[in-house]
Amino acid sequence: MKFLLKNDYFLAIAVVLIFGFSTAFAQVGGPYTADDNTVLLLHFDGDLANEATVTEDGVFHGDASNFYFLNNPITELSQCLRIDNDSQNDSAFVTVADADALD
Question: Which of 1, 20, 23, 42 is most buried as measured by Cβ atoms within 10 A of its Cβ?
């Protein structure tokens, strides 16, 4: 019985590793482009410009030193936005103006 449980344990680990690696290296797609159905598309190319025409650009709120654009490890997807709210006094965030298209 112990032998069967031990084998099941190793099988479970193998399945998790296989699916984990396949998910990590799956093709994400992109670079994405806006089409007639796009409501909001932010590439974070050093700004919050919205590629969609039916909603506004994003807007930074808070201390500008809390926002960082970092190179994305998935090269097709431009940059990442990091918001550093590392203290209780920080409250940096990004908004996009409400629009009917977002409902």
Answer: 42
